[in-house]
């Protein structure tokens, strides 16, 4: 049973436009959420995170929004660049999972020039 | 230059053979993890260790074994009992739980069956 769901396996966006990647979770004990970016044949790298006490966190072109009541978070990339093309993993942690991050299946983002 | 080193980058396993994947970190992290990535499956936790000489099974530990004799090292052995070992294996480390939510990953080992 997936506790962290990324229902879109892939997303294609034009350079300069906004990319929106979505993530849903089922465990109400999760209270910390992270996004990782992964290139092929490499390990994921941390991108941005958000605590459940916030509903938005911004870092340059990347913004993560959290809707606790809907158990939904999203990652916005504005403007999108070809170098952003990668697989993005959503992860969640909290007392419900012994604080070990649980990962979604990832969304492959392709940004076209 | 701090980081996590996984070796080898590519590994091939013969039928009935045990193979060991290496993971070394110089980030002085207490916690270390092994994840497996299959296409379309995301990252699934195999084993984790929060302290030297202690480790816990993750969601898919069957057919795998680990040791944690040193803080810097967390090798993973894929045994012959693991019937579907072909995958991309990722090692990660982080500060001790519960505050260590952010993980640092190695570059991975691609294991294939001959």
Overall description:
The complex is a heterodimer of chains A (113) and B (114). Chain A is mainly beta. In chain A, 0% of the residues lie in helices and 56% in strands. In chain A, the strands form two sheets. In chain A, strands 2, 4, 5, 9, 10 and 11 form a six-stranded mixed sheet that branches. Chain A has a five-stranded antiparallel sheet with strand order 1-3-8-7-6, with no helix packed on it. The mean pLDDT of chain A is 93. Chain B has strands at residues 4-7, 10-13, 19-25, 31-38, 42-51, 54-57, 64-66, 76-78, 87-94, 104-105, 109-113. In chain B, the strands form two sheets. In chain B, strands 2, 4, 5, 6, 9, 10 and 11 form a seven-stranded mixed sheet that branches. In chain B, strands 1-3-8-7 form a four-stranded antiparallel sheet, with no helix packed on it. In chain B, strand 5 (42-51) and strand 6 (54-57) form a beta hairpin. The A-B interface holds A 6, 9, 32, 34, 36, 41-46, 49, 89, 93, 95, 98-106 and B 4, 6, 33, 35, 40-45, 48, 58, 88, 90, 92, 97-98, 100-108, 110.
Considering DSSP H and I runs of 4 or more, what fraction of the residues of chain B is helical? Answer: under 10%
Please indicate the percent range of residues of chain B in DSSP E strands (runs of 2 or more): over 45%
Count interface residues per chain for the largest interface: A-B, 24 and 27 residues
Give the oligomeric state of the chains in this entry, treating copies of one chain as homo and distinct chains as hetero.
heterodimer
Percentage of residues in helical conformation of chain A: under 10%
Shape of chain A: globular
Q: What is the helix/strand order of chain B?
A: EEEEEEEEEEE
**Kindly state the mean pLDDT of chain A as a whole number?**
93
Question: Which radius of gyration of chain B do the C-alpha atoms yield?
Answer: 13 Å
What fraction of residues of chain A sit in β-strands? over 45%
Largest sheet of chain A: 6 strands, mixed
Poorly predicted spans of chain A: none
- Structural class from helices and strands of chain A? mainly beta
Number of helices of chain B: 0
Give the biggest sheet of chain B: 7 strands, mixed
DSSP E strands of chain A, number: 11
Q: Identify low-pLDDT runs of chain B.
A: none
Envelope shape of chain B = globular
First CA to last CA of chain B: what distance?
Answer: 35 Å
Average pLDDT of chain B, rounded to a whole number, is: 92
């Amino acid at each position: 049973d997936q506790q962290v769901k990324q229902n879109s396996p892939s997303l294609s966006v034009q350079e300069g436009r906004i990319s929106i990647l979505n993530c849903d979770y089922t465990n109400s004990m999760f209270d910390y959420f992270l996004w990782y970016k992964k290139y092929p044949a490499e390990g994921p790298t941390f991108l941005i995170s958000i605590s459940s006490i916030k509903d938005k966190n911004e870092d340059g072109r990347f913004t993560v929004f959290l809707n606790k009541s809907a158990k939904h978070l999203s990652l916005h990339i504005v403007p999108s660049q070809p170098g952003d093309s990668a697989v993005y993993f959503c992860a969640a942690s909290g007392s419900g999972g012994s604080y070990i991050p649980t990962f979604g299946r990832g969304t492959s983002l392709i940004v076209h020039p | 230059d701090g980081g996590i080193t996984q070796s080898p980058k590519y590994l091939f396993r013969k039928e009935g053979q045990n193979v060991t994947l290496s993971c070394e970190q110089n980030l002085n992290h207490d916690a270390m993890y092994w994840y497996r990535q299959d296409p379309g499956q995301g990252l699934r936790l195999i084993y984790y260790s929060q302290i030297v000489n202690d480790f816990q099974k993750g969601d898919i530990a069957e057919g795998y074994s680990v040791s944690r004799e040193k803080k810097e090292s967390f090798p993973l052995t894929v045994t012959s009992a693991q019937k579907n070992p072909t995958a991309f294996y990722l090692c990660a480390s982080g500060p001790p739980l519960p505050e260590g939510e952010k993980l640092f990953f190695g570059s991975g080992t691609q294991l294939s069956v001959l």
